[in-house]
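SEVERITY: medium
COMPONENT: batch folding queue
REPORTER: lab tech (J.R.)

DESCRIPTION
The queue accepted two submissions in a row. Attaching both inputs and their returned structure tokens so the on-call engineer can compare them side by side.

ATTACHMENT 1
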Amino acid sequence: MENIKENRDIILNKINNIHKKSFFKNSVPPRLIAVSKKQEEYKIDNAIKIGHRFFGENRVQEAILRWENRIKHYDDIELRLIGPLQTNKVKQALKIFNTIETIDREKLAKVVADNINDKTKTKTFYIQVNTGNEEQKGGVSTLEASEFINYCKNKLNLPILGLMCIPPENEEPAMHFSLLRKLALKNNLTELSMGMSNDFEEAIKFGATSVRIGSKFFGDRKY
């Protein structure tokens, strides 16, 4: 049985130690987003019991089934959508997630903007950037990113706070984290969601404000 408290303590210590030695040491350390995709329910409960409150889900339906009742008892939990969002799931997503990190195309951004109202739970959004320009992966291209950010912020009035990326598996992640940071600075965005279990330490060196970690936090997933 996984010792989630021990796993969490190890990760948080690494985050804080790397952050203290980084160029960004005077800013707030990155948030640890526990990726609960396809994890067993007892692990989620264990994480909540030890005080963890930041979670990332990849699918809207899975998130609703898992969190709808839990967030009634724990109103301080922050849920993030870190997987692709289909336009027909937008209304549901806006009711369950605090933050959606995967806005990546005009059609989706427009549907999101059209469905925001006073009762919407989602208060902040990130643009997903496809820094490796991979055909099979979501995200706006790097060349179109600034124009798309401007469209979302100024034409649709979406509260875009940051950027998110997933570097290609076969490339050095540092160059992708560096590129994402430059895009954020260029567009006056403060939040950077970058870094996962295998590369979060590198992401922190480039100014990640949140890192998304699954297996190193929860242990192996159940498929």
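ATTACHMENT 2
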Amino acid sequence: MKKPTSLIGLTSFLCFISILLVMTFNSHSQNVGTPKSPEIDFKNFPIASFDEPLPTESQARVAREAKNKKFNSKAKSISESSTQIFTVMDWDIGLPTFPIERSFAVVIGRITEAKAFLSEDKTAIYSEFKVQIDSVLKNDDRCPIQPETSLIVGRDGGRVRLPSGKIVVSWINHQNMPAVGGKYALFLTHELPRGGDGGTDFYIVTAYELANGNVFPMDDIPSGHPIAAIKGRSESSFLNDLQSLLGSSPKLR
């Protein structure tokens, strides 16, 4: 017996709706909370211990508590059920090759130490890097930087080792971390990575590694972005252009 034409049409329509719903669900499930694959190598991301105690010395303890609070968020606390924390931000949209206007200071220095920390509420991870300053190309009037001294600079993201030994990684799209031992031109701001005034603390806007006479963007910016075009450029050409934009040769203060 032939099925009525209207029934066949209804059956086809319901099948189409079912397929559409499945496709919609799959599309959303692939893009919530984590990318399909990591965009960077996490080898330069420092690792914090989940149960790391605060410093015992009072001044250092107060300073660390204040920094930890700056990274508190409304997210779920990191736990054994956590896998990775991936955040998409538009930080690199419109970012020029030399983000001088967005930087309170521009320095050249070598990374001598890297550490990661948990926010006070254990919802976020952030990293800090000790930089041995070689030269100051643009100085900050509020917090002047001296060459041949050390400076601590921070960045959102890092890794944490949980009590079980499991490691959870946190990062922002396209952002990488400087490598210990590497020499970098660092563009620094006092603005917190997710917005707000970070006080006297410095945070990395972006950076370029200076290695073997050439320049390489630290961040994994997609091709087509002005920063990506710097890869492999000569260090002398890079510094000449940067100094020209700053007005003249660098003043070491």
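NOTES FROM REPORTER
Residues 142 and 200 are 8 Å apart (CA to CA).
No errors were logged for either attachment.
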